[in-house]
Amino acid sequence: MSQTLLIELLTEELPPKLLPRLAEAFRRGIAEALLAQQFSVASSTVEGYATPRRLGLTITHVLACQPDRTIERKGPARAAGFGADGKPTPALAGFARSCGVTVEELQMGSDPKGNEVFAYQATQRGQTLVEALPALLTEVLARLPVAKVMRWGAGDAQFVRPVHGLVVLHGADIVPITLMGLNAGRITQGHRFLSAGAISISHADAYAATLQETGHVMAHFETRRQTIQAALTAAAQGATPLAGDALLDEVTALVEWPAVYAGTFSDEFLSVPQECLVLSMQQHQKYFPLGDASGRLQPRFLLVSNIDTAQPDAIIHGNERVLRARLSDARFFFEQDRKTPLHDRVAGLSHVVYHNKLGSMLERVERLQKLSGALASLLNASSEHAQRAAYLMKADLVTDMVGEFPELQGIVGRYYARHDNEPDAVAEAIEEHYHPRFANDTLPATPVGAAVALADKLDTLTGLFGVGQIPTGDKDPFGLRRAALGVIRILMEQSLAMELPVLLSEARAAFAAHVALSPTTVADLTAFIYDRLRGVLRERGYTPEEIEAVVSQSPARLDHVLLRLEAVRAFRALPEAAALAAANKRIGNVLKKTELPHGATVVREHLVDGAEKELFDALIALEPLVDDHLAQRDYGAALLQLAGLRTVVDTFFTDVMVMSDDRTLRANRLALLARLFTLMNQVADISKLGG
Questions:
Q1: 197: pLDDT confidence band, cut at 50, 70 and 90?
Q2: Is residue 39 classed exposed, middle or buried when 0-12, 13-18 and 19+ CB atoms within 10 A define those classes?
Q3: Cα atoms in the 13 Å half-sphere on the side-chain side of 192
Q4: Three-state SS string across 598-666, please?
């Protein structure tokens, strides 16, 4: 008979930032294992539970015992079972022993090809939940995404936090298993302060309701999150909480019975940059700052407490007192930092090691000045402003504010640059050079900002690739994938007329001669960036064939990649596309197998066949049209012109023997194909569209 199965681990406080991922892995791992072992069915309903002190799961329609299973093993072929003397061969005798039976007890069956073979069949008794769950749970827990585990007490049990209770119910019955030194039961604990004590779960289906009604615990993570979100909206009284989903998830993982309260702070702290105050409230105290309709910070905040009380004054005042101390520190750092201009801090970067093989941060600043100036010139932006921004943009790393709030680097630098009366373009670029900082982040909004942002990312990539710090697998300690994606996004989305090979060459040239970089640095980095580009384009919905047709050509201008892809997509829809793609691939294979003399050209007088003359005439007519479309960046029209070649190309391959015994004819025909190949692949390698 099937019943709902409940499993709960009662633990010490779990890491809040890890809890959602941990709970999902726990829920999915157990559900998949039960289904795979035929304890549950595909229609079973699975609910996961996660609070700071527990991981839980209920799953419906779970059997107390697996169904019996028929096991069948195939052995040697019948013809190979007995020797000339009529006795079993060693292969047959060994197969029987491995099955635990005699040769006479084996049956006959057939293999996938229909050949008659010896076979063994037996019925395997299904395991009970009591028998299967310990191993199943042990395997699931071992696979949870936990970097470090703890041990506690005198036993050998290990988990992300000590486990003090285990509840396993099948319907109303306890499943008497032992896990991590704990015997399963029906007793759990409610809220640390609001619950009256131990709680008995009468039935697996009553788990969540019992905890909520008796223990003041909202066990379901998403329900708790929605409750908090609604309470925040109500308490904000028309203001906007200045925090994202990450903080909401974190506070949801910190409480079992949430209550939202509003607090205030003195508006004298509003003289400190808003970003500093917001970060202090969010990161250190897990508060929700409030902003007005324009996003300007108000002297109010919301806090999520684990205590629901009718008299929250002590909670509110205590949190206000703690916040006042935090904001006082931020104001002190801000005021002290401004006493020293940014340009006077640059020399201090000589004591900050950037990388032991790439020198100090000051040496990096010197490279960035040179590279930023060169890139600004390519963008027709102010080289002077770009070099000044590059000189100052790392100076805030040695300020007290960034020392306390590393996330504010660049932002603090912008405020200090404005206080020092630096040009607005310089101040903005100091912050913008870090953008984009994460997926979907904003890009630099100014030309100078784009120049220094590219310089910063290209210097990082070139230097670290040059000393062998290339990302492998999922390891990327220096954020090089993020830097490469930043370069791609800036070039593509801001339509910058800059060629990638030129940028990488400039970045490599900025390094002093004494810095030993790998001779393959630029080549390795080029391949890395194009590989990241493929990922970006996949996310935008282009097919692997479309992407490869364009990216395999190593396009220098990334701002033209999307135009080329749209042209390829339109061309691919034409009825002529498949035939031309196949012909292009055939031409490429022919040219790879032959050595055409450098600079070989088609001689009109050496064209003797009507089909090759028609192809040559078609090329002469199309080349100026295609060149004109390419000059106008009208890649779709350029590819559309190629559709008119299908008939003459098909006729050429039908009527003309390219590899003629006549060396003059053969060379001329190969030159013709090379000219056709060049024309066909100026937008993309259309041979990649075949198949």
A1: confident
A2: buried
A3: 14
A4: CCCCCCHHHCCCHHHHHHHHHHHHHHHHHHHHHHCCCHHHHHHHHHHHHHHHHHHHHHCCCCCCCHHHH
If you average pLDDT over residues 497-523, what whole number do you get?
94
Is 110 strand, coil or helix?
A: strand
Return d(Cα 86, Cα 81) in angstroms, integer: 9
CB 155 within 8 Å of CB 180: yes
Per-residue DSSP letters for 373-402?
A: HHHHHHTTS-HHHHHHHHHHTTGGGGSHHH
Q: Which of 661, 671, 676, 660 is nearest to 604 (CA)?
A: 671
Q: Which residues pair with 519 in a beta bridge?
A: none
Mean pLDDT, range 109-116, rounded to an integer:
82
**For residue range 536-590, what is the model confidence (pLDDT) as tens digits?**
999 999 999 999 999 999 999 999 999 999 999 998 888 888 888 888 888 888 8
How far apart are the C-alpha atoms of 240 and 254, rounded to whole Å?
A: 22
Instruction: Indicate whether 474 pLDDT > 90.
Output: no
262, 313 contact by CB (below 8 A): no
Q: What is the pLDDT of residue 691?
A: 53
Residue 9 belongs to what H/E stretch? Answer: strand 2-11
The mean of the pLDDT values for the chain is: 93
Rounded to an integer, what distance in angstroms lies between the CA atom of residue 282 and that of residue 271? 18
Burial of residue 285, with CB atoms counted within 10 A of its CB: 0-12 exposed, 13-18 middle, 19 or more buried: middle
In which residue are the tokens 């190629």 written?
642
Main-chain phi, psi angles of 128, to 5 degrees:
-85, 165
Phi then psi for 22, rounded to 5 degrees? -65, -45
The Cα–Cα gap between 158 and 531 comes to 40
Asked whether 687 and 588 are in contact (CB, 8 A), the reply is: yes
637-674 pLDDT, tens digit per residue, is 998 888 888 888 889 888 889 888 888 888 888 899 98
Residues 98-108, mean pLDDT to the nearest whole number: 87
pTM summary value = 0.79
Per-residue pLDDT of 587-636, as tens digits, reads 888 888 887 777 678 888 888 888 889 999 999 999 999 999 999 999 99
User: What letter represents residue 148's amino acid?
Assistant: K
642, 580 Cβ separation under 8 angstroms: yes
Residues ≥6 apart with Cβ < 8 Å to 606:
664, 665, 668
Q: Which of 63-67, 192-196, 501-505, 585-589 has the highest mean pLDDT?
A: 501-505
> Which residues are registered as beta bridge partners of 288?
302
Largest CA distance in the chain: 104
The Cα 551–Cα 64 span in angstroms is: 56
Residue 531: how many CB atoms within 10 A of its CB? Answer: 12
> Would you state the pLDDT for residue 560?
95
Bond from prior residue into 16 cis (ω within 30 degrees of 0): no
**CA 585 remoteness from chain centre:** 34
DSSP annotation of 284: I
According to DSSP, residue 557 is labeled B
Tally the residues of the chain. 691
How many CA atoms, within 13 angstroms, populate the side-chain half-sphere of residue 300? 16
